[in-house]
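Predicting holo structure, flavin-adenine dinucleotide bound.
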Amino acid sequence: ATAFDWKDPLKASALFTEDELAIAETAESYCQERMLPRVLDAYRNEDYDAKILEEMGELGLLGATIEGYECAGVSSVASGLITRAVERVDSGYRSAMSVQSSLVMGGIHEHGTEELKEKFLPGLAKGKKIGCFGLTEPNHGSDPGSMESVAKPHPSKKGYYSLSGSKTWITNSPIADVFLVWAKLQETGKIRGFVIERDQCPPGTLETPALKHKNGLRASITGMIQMDDCPVPEANMFPDIEGLTGPFSCLNSARHGIAWGVMGALEDCIDRARTYSLDRKQFKGNPLAKYQLIQKKLADASTDAAFGILAAAQVARLKDQGLATPEMISMIKRQNCDRALVNARVLQEIFGGNAASDEYHIGRHVANLFVTQTYEGQSDIHALILGRAITGVQAFC
Ligand code: TGC
Ligand code: FAD
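Done. Tokens:
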């Protein structure tokens, strides 16, 4: 007889192939055995261990949907399951991976020349090189179309562009080797994508100061990219893509990954809150789990996590068939981030005063989930994307 499994309430696993389940198991084992023991120190000290990307690379977990270039070529569902396993440990670890895999490798794979792909993808796939993605600027976050970063022919180096401008809140930038940066070409005013290599930049032309003292996502490194007449070979500009479609096509993949990832973080909160509620006794020796108000919190969170995974799996399958639209991705990114944050915050109450200790992990997830709801399009921005698609009227400005 089929029994209800609180860890997989709607039996989402029945939708996944054997290969996808095996990949998920590899990722889960790695994350629980190798990542989880590091996370408290990393979070306390805002110290990301770049070896993690190398370890993930060895397991074939980076840029996993890409075919060739030493990548695994798995389905979008498998890639979603990897993301969910990583974020079960920490959203910051997932961030470092998403930027590497979806934003940088995905961008180079989709828009780069064959030379750029061959030069950069294998090193990024193995985690030997670290990538970052520079779209947001100090004055332009939700509205990247107004960016001020500019590219113009280099005044003294033939065959080079010169890039100037600032990017901020950039995951991995202080430790990155490869920078996918978006800037407006001065002669056309159109946004173009450029691949910058740190070790090819003369001193003073590319600086990447870290943004310290974050109150969320502390296990991931965040910084700025400051470009001052930074020389970039013309061959490092994406040849055929201009306008916001370039960065947004990379964001479609990363946002899809976040929709899976945050469900992993929420599932970890549910697991920990359930265990705590069974162990902790209050009033006549009863476990907290005996009380109806506690059970309702678990039931609400569990329902949202189960629905969220089904929705992400549906969009992943459509994505692989070429049938997913950006609005579908906005819908699951917004819904899953919002529900993960709201439920994690409610589950935090079950821990009472112990929630204030980082050793119970729940507070870390709550602080992280605020960030996931903000980056890659804040939830209200995704509501406006959906509102525009539903009504045909744009409400951004
Ligand atoms: P809009 O008029 O809507 O579009 C301009 C052009 O872009 C095209 N486009 C898309 N193409 C592909 N996929 C999508 N999702 C697309 N969305 C738009 C669109 O078709 C149009 O093309 P064309 O040829 O007609 O020019 O542009 P808008 O300026 O009105 O944009 C408004 C808005 C709100 C939709 C957009 O700017 C937005 O999504 N803002 C949010 C910004 C954002 O998501 N930033 C993310 C930065 S990266 C990051 O946060 C990484 S964190 C990673 C981590 O650590 O895990
Ligand atoms: P703003 O655009 O100033 O928005 C502030 C608030 O106003 C939001 O609630 C927003 O929804 C609301 N708002 C804005 N416009 C409207 C409107 N028209 N109608 C209604 N409400 C509106 N960016 C990168 O490019 N690469 C990265 O790797 C990266 N990593 C990040 C890592 C972290 C830890 C963080 C915190 C951010 C990261 N970002 C990155 C930046 C992130 O994408 C932006 O913070 C995000 O897009 C929001 O932009 P903003 O912070 O400028 O907020």
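The longest strand covers residues 160-171.
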